[in-house]
Structures are given as structure tokens and as C-alpha cells.
What does this fold into?
Amino acid sequence: MTESERQQHDHLDVLMQAYTEALAAHGVDGVLLYSGRPARHFGDDQDTSFAAYGHFVHWTGQAQLAHSWLLIRPGVQPTLTLHAPADFWHLPARLPEEPWVERFRVEARESPEPPPLPPGRFAVLGDVTNDLAQALGAEANPPGLVAALDELRVRKSDYEVSCLREANRRAMAGHRAAREAFEAGGAEFDIQLAYLSGVRQRESELPYPNIVGLNAHGGVLHYQHYDTAPPAARRSLLVDAGRRYRGYCADITRTWAGGDATPEFAPLIEGVTALQQRLITDLAPGVSYVALHERMHEGLAALLVAHGLVDASAEAVLASGLTRAFCPHGLGHLLGVQVHDVGGRVDARGQPQPPPAEHPVLRLTRELEAGMVVTMEPGLYIIPMLLEAHRHRPEVNWGRVEHLADHGGIRIEDNVLVTADGPDNLTPREH
It folds into this structure.
């Protein structure tokens, strides 16, 4: 057995023990996890891209298995009901020939319907209706149990960390290919194709739609298009792109200056990168992620002043709220089998912990613990619609800001494991 296989077996042992305790605490005899199903386009016979339910993936690592079911009962070998119809239109689902499969009792079925449940009290989790659960004699998505199982995904096992590390390593191959395509004069579409070739994964398997933004498009936080023609000038490229490995996600962002960039842009990238690295150094158990997010804004205020975008003290810039116009998103989030993984907005007791009113989009509001994997992604953008509300501020050097507008923005994002001995950056520092 390889080290990875041993880690996976240990992961499944720990998961079974944790589920046993959670099910007992909530008075249920077992739980049926539904992988989910792809949605069908309205009025069509084609389906959308699909990713399986996170708790199903937590056990199996299979993010593409649709219409499949996993029954977990304490002291009983888990039963994986695999939807594998006899079909000449599509290749039926198959499991890999790996040792972990032996940990499950696998039943291949042609029907996508759920398997019957044995006597007892059961919960069904996933994209299921109350009617379906009632037909099985079970309860659909009981909130307390769902929250308890969400919490099991917050701290990663050694196996999960190794998967996340490998996902990052493979994603960085895509980022290198993307940069090479950019420097060769490629359009956004060419850069996307280069990325896919670099990671050896098709678009529908990626953890999220890649963001590939040239020039001003880098200032659209979730830019969703790929221009097929290269721009007349190559000022900047922002690539926010990941990869899956055994169900686990990488989520990496890099920004590069092009040959036509204004001289001020590359130093700003270096400034955001240095800020990000300082914030990563501060990651430790017991640290408030909200406090780190606020520290990001302190660093952004200093950066705006140091680079002459604002003529005021950093303290005054921060107090004015101006930094939120230059960076409207949160510092980061939990990462795992989902990109924005579950459990980020609760306290240590599992109670909801909303973000501060001034930072409503922050996805992680709790104190850090060893075993958490978080993204760290400070940004600095020129977003006209957000800056317009500050047009009355004479301290803003509007000429310099507008000179950067067609560069879009900067985001630098790594994936970092929190440990008692300090941060462990899973993202290779290659540029």
C-alpha cells in the first residue's frame, strides 16, 4: 500500500468514527448521501455541467458521479449504489481500480432512484425533496445533522491535505502555460486553452469556471467570457483558475503585467504580492480571520498611499472606507471538496457568525484552527462603478487612477494550511 493509499484508509476510518458520533448525537441510525444530478436546460435535452454533493465527495473523492447514493451506518460497511445503466449513448460510470473501493459495498444499478432503506430512523442528505425522503421513511436534510457533518470538513486529514497539495501542484502547471500564452500574444480564449492543456482537465471537471481577464477585464471579479481576438495592447492578465484532484480543489490567482503596461502597474503587483505574503505569515491557530481581513485593508491603505494613488495618511484612507472601493471582496475562504467550502460562517459552537456589516461578503468569519485550509487573496482593482461614489474626494489622484483603469486589477491567491507550527503554503511559489 502506498503512503497516499494508507492516508486514504486512515481518512475513511476517522470519517466513519466521526459519522458514528454525529449520528448518535442526532438520534439517527444512518444517513443516505445523494451525489446529485445535473440540471437540464429548459426546453432542451442537454444537461448542465455537474459536480457531486460535497459530503458524498468527502467519502468517495468522486466529483462526477451523478444519480449515485452512499448509505452510512455505524458498524456496517458503507454501501455505494452506483448509477451505471446499460447505455450505448454514454459510457456508464466506473470506479477506479484502487484499494479504497474495497472499503465500500458497491451495487451497480440501472435506475437513478434511491435504494430502499433498512428499518430504523434515517436522514437523506443532498438535493432531495421532502416527498422523496418521506417515501423512504426518512427525513430530508435535518439542519442540525447537516451542520455537524459540515463541521467535519473544516479541519483536513493528512489525506485531504495531500490531495489539496497535489491539486495545487497541477494547477500551477496551468498557470505557467497561461502566462506563456499571454506573453506569446494570445487572446483570452487561447490562454484558457493553454491552461486546460497545462492541467490536463476539461472545463466541466474544473472546480469553477476559470477567470481569464486581459486588461480591463481583470477588474471584473468573476469575469465570465473569453475573447477570441487578442487586444491591441497587452497591459495585464489576471487568471483565477484551479483544478480538481480526487475531488479536492485548488483555487489560485495570479496577475501579470504585459509589455504595454504602464510603469506603475508591475510595482503594484509586487506590492499586493508582498502584502499577501505578510498576511500568510500571520496565519495561526486562534487568529481571527476577520482581523486578518481588516489587516488586509490596512495594508491596502498603505499601498494606495505609497504608490501615489491617494494623497493622505494611510489611517485617513482606511477610516474613509476608500479601500473597500479598491477591494470589495473578502480576503478568502475555506477550501476543500468545494471551492467555497462549508463551515466558514459559524463560531466554535456551530452557531451562525455573520460577517461584519462593513464587510458583508466575507466568507470566513471564525477563528482559525490547525487543519483548516484557507485561501489568501488580497486584491486591488480599478472598478469605475465603485470608485464613482468617491469622486468628491480630492485626496484621490484621479489622473493616476484612471491611467490604470485599462489594466483592470490585481489579485494574488494562494491556498494555505493552518498548522500549530506556522502556515504551510500548498501553492508552489512559481511565477
